[in-house]
Records
---
Amino acid sequence: MAPGGDRCRSSVRSARSAAPVSSAPLDPAAARVRASFARQGAMATLGTELTDVVAGRVVIALPIEPRLSQQDGFLHAGVVVAALDSACGYAALTLMPDDAEVLTVELKVNLLAPVSGERLVAEGEVVRAGGTLTVCRGDAYAEQAAERVHVATMLATMVGRRARP
Amino acid sequence: MAPGGDRCRSSVRSARSAAPVSSAPLDPAAARVRASFARQGAMATLGTELTDVVAGRVVIALPIEPRLSQQDGFLHAGVVVAALDSACGYAALTLMPDDAEVLTVELKVNLLAPVSGERLVAEGEVVRAGGTLTVCRGDAYAEQAAERVHVATMLATMVGRRARP
Amino acid sequence: MAPGGDRCRSSVRSARSAAPVSSAPLDPAAARVRASFARQGAMATLGTELTDVVAGRVVIALPIEPRLSQQDGFLHAGVVVAALDSACGYAALTLMPDDAEVLTVELKVNLLAPVSGERLVAEGEVVRAGGTLTVCRGDAYAEQAAERVHVATMLATMVGRRARP
Amino acid sequence: MAPGGDRCRSSVRSARSAAPVSSAPLDPAAARVRASFARQGAMATLGTELTDVVAGRVVIALPIEPRLSQQDGFLHAGVVVAALDSACGYAALTLMPDDAEVLTVELKVNLLAPVSGERLVAEGEVVRAGGTLTVCRGDAYAEQAAERVHVATMLATMVGRRARP
């Protein structure tokens, strides 16, 4: 098959040129992301926090706690994936039309090291935004005091669809 | 590159020939899986239950609840992935030596439909078990009364390592 | 994020209920696949042959030759992927509207064993067909006399788009 | 499961600090890569050229030709994957012991745009090198005159094993 993406070509917008939310307090895309995030029961249950929202890039953090562990005390891979998935999905949403919702088509993650420390930081970034599909990259880091370890890297495909009225 | 897996060849064991745990109550692999599962804080936090453990195949279920939702009320993709990851990892562990621990190297999941209903069932199965790496497939289903919808399919690579004494 | 696929729900067609091409010689989908396959320069260069086309399932085979090897004489992983990608893409195309073209959005493959022998057989099958996206599974086998080894397994996402007039 | 990679931790080497081959003409890792590449029948059949080899990073290029096309005249996705797979595998090999061989465990690629133009350039880079497994990222670009389009992005897992004497 030929690589896909043709239909995505015309509407690519740069994920790099955006001003940070802090200097654009009325950014409707960021407001939309924050409102949506607040409705995610799972993000609350996992104790996550939305720390950065700019066009094409979203960062989510969560405290590493025993209640989120796997059998050896490290953070469960599924929790890492959940945070990365939300970061990537919301990064995609920042570049979608105002009335869009975002769903995960698929994701793939390589886990680079067992996760321990104080805090997980999951960064999602748009690689290519299209009319229908958006490809994102995510990277997660375990933080402990001044140390930061790269613990996971993700590629994900998101789809936008019109919200139902 | 050549496809990998050569070193995995000699120790493949069949995932199909095993008797169910219920008819083999002293199966040490199943006992090991159950003990490990009980130590997973994340699985408890998500409300999961280990429903089947046989050689090469493990099933995990969890109730679909608002506290595990994404923004539109469906089950969060990360929760689906967490359940599938544990199911696949434990399926791999059933075929590993007694003193092995299992870690996720990587996973990829396609999400086939938004997840709603009463219960998510995540099934993990070994595709190929090797000396070092085990490849697993996972499939998740949303159940509601008599209906069962296929909501996700996963491929994952697990690695066994010796437990530290 | 929520798993995607909602929009795909209504148009799912069964990949299982189809009669084989041999008993339906006028099947327009199979004819379309065969015509498209014949235009793939890469499939000819790799020496592939389209061996089966039924609704939701396509099989492609190729001889294992030194000119397609990696450095140790095994079949190159990229060749395995190329065959699986075409098998999956055409499996998707069999369930798409008559004027559709198919493109690969993404694919992931686990390579289970080094590939040697006489022939590679790549089977692609639709897992879920939707209005826009189709998810496929592929499995490749190395054949040598009566022996058949499972050498790779794939998950792939395909997108249909209207052909340009 | 816990994310894997623990055993990989101690032997990580930086992919960034290496001098380019041109300033280290006797680099044995680069020589090893070039010798191995020359033995890949598939790379010759596809018309590829090894354009850069430094520690942790390898670049491969190939002319875009009708004999490598899919049905609409674009470069076949499998060819893109083959080039990226070799670039990633050899990037991994540059950081492995002298007597190691490299095999692909798995790979995942997102195809970002149909590939046309004069030349495909596939860049592979090590994300994390470990004692057993190495995680790589690959990016492919279609070049035409002064234009360069990002057409694919890959994550791949490679495994090193001792060469047989």
---
Amino acid sequence: MMFEFRVQAVCPETGARAGELVTPHGIIETPVFMPVGTRATVKAMSPREMEEIEAQIVLSNTYHLYLRPGVELIEKAGGLHRFMNWHRPILTDSGGFQVFSLSGINRIKEDGVEFSSHLDGSRHFMTPELATRVQEGLGSDIAMCFDQCVELPCDEETARKSVERTLRWARRCKEVHRRDDQALFGIVQGALFDDLRKDCARELIAMDFPGYSIGGLSVGESHDEMYRILDLLNPILPQEKPRYLMGVGFPTNLVEGVARGVDMFDCVLPTRNGRNGTLLTSRGKFNIKHSRFEEDWGPIDPDCDCYACREFSKAYIRHLYRSGEMLGARLCSWHNLRYLISLMKGAREAILEGRFPQFRDRFHELFSTGKVL
Amino acid sequence: MMFEFRVQAVCPETGARAGELVTPHGIIETPVFMPVGTRATVKAMSPREMEEIEAQIVLSNTYHLYLRPGVELIEKAGGLHRFMNWHRPILTDSGGFQVFSLSGINRIKEDGVEFSSHLDGSRHFMTPELATRVQEGLGSDIAMCFDQCVELPCDEETARKSVERTLRWARRCKEVHRRDDQALFGIVQGALFDDLRKDCARELIAMDFPGYSIGGLSVGESHDEMYRILDLLNPILPQEKPRYLMGVGFPTNLVEGVARGVDMFDCVLPTRNGRNGTLLTSRGKFNIKHSRFEEDWGPIDPDCDCYACREFSKAYIRHLYRSGEMLGARLCSWHNLRYLISLMKGAREAILEGRFPQFRDRFHELFSTGKVL
């Protein structure tokens, strides 16, 4: 089997799962945080640094790569792994989210979405078939169905239509998908409407995808609303398939997502935050530019084993930011990514050892102190 | 001896030297290219990457560090080595060049230079004594006398006055310099006037500095003019002391500088060029953004052993630049630095093995082909 998902342990109290996802480029231990390499590079990081922080898989964006450098060039390179020199698994999104959020004027038709490039205004027409073909060209290990995202707040009728279209498009993606060394996941939409979410999940399950993504969350709703949808889907989604909560990267949401049966997460948060000096740490979130760190010779996070925390002081990293030096963005991105990867590794170990509820309590207690390190 | 310079071999044909400069933070093998870490970081690089490319020493700028974060903070950190986590030798300039080139309005007085910060316009007064004290606070292994630079073209009277002031200031720097774990170099000025250059060198030699810098070159003069000044100084400067040609980093100038008895070079060129995609290679200089590299799957430089050349294609690095991705600037800075360091390492080996003239010919032949790799 090129793809297989094995659940290794389930927390009896919460339903949190530890598992292994077998892919052509290696086995991914879940729960897992997947760093985002939008344009075939995880911002500020090199591939070998990604290996050093034990990133198991990176995500890349079909929309961006389709526009530049184009899938043809990446095919000539021998696929995205070789192009970007990353030899562990890659997940690609379908471009659905970006077509709606990034592009200029877009027109949704039954066949697909007409949109103009955010780079040069050129007109393009993205369809479920094209999104699938592009992802096959990229050669990612895990691909996504082309889906229709809606903005929140959103009325039920709009959400219903987007779910129905997402389902029709999912069928078309599955229909044309050929590569057996690539797993195609279905995406559950339905905004914040419980019945729509359930219906969407059940229809996708009937199509029998090798994994299920939960889309359209972390787009402005409250944490409680997000958790309600996850609680709703947890018992519906098949236990034996991986579940991927798209675009979620805040530490609290990761731990609570795991507690609701989620296996995979991705987000630009750690690298975007890193570039502006915002740090995610075991003691909460803070910005390195704050004057209270001027003479702070301690590490970003005393519990972290990353290069930034092992070798540099907060005072020095603050100086790098104030001076606009690239090493500042590098060290903070590095730490943030390592922190989220370690957090999920810790959750996994706790699940395997039957102490996830304690791990979760301890995380919240420490993270919410937000005390100055 | 905390400082010692040993000439290990001299090319009988050109006078090119291979030597060892002993410093409190290690032995530097010369000739050497010194990467510039203006604000306590070599742009786009981490300290461990600098070790990997075998940087033996880095340069940092007194003017910048004096303004931000301030020498007091760096002293609290335990000195510049600890602040920036670089444990090999550091050379600091005196701030003379920046006071004239970067600051806003400046007024030269006999006592020093009144200038306004390029950061916030605040007024400062830099003197030979302060420049020395600041460098002692930074704790660099090699410090520079505070000198007066003139812009080219420059009339002889202006140049003469600047030489006389530079000599008076050098005496004052030497007078107040206390740290015996820091070598203070004198700087030869004199624009393009042969007699002024000679006089300046002889006066400095009489003051008996542990090393001599050649300043005020690579500021717009022709290569021939630069080489004429070097040819002039080569027999005057004491053989047993190291010679440092300031601000020179173009490969041709490095090799020709070595051929004229220079031991040390520094320049922002490799990192500044790297950030805009300009590459220095064994086959000449080119910009990675050029369309001819669109489908070029080869390395930047087939003769280079750096991470960028070992692991990434020109097509991919071009994509990174076009997408504005930080990894592009990192890989090109990385390569450019490694190239200059390797070039000087190659020159050293050639001198030690008695084949420097052939090395020099071969370098020019290959570098001037400028052929597309």
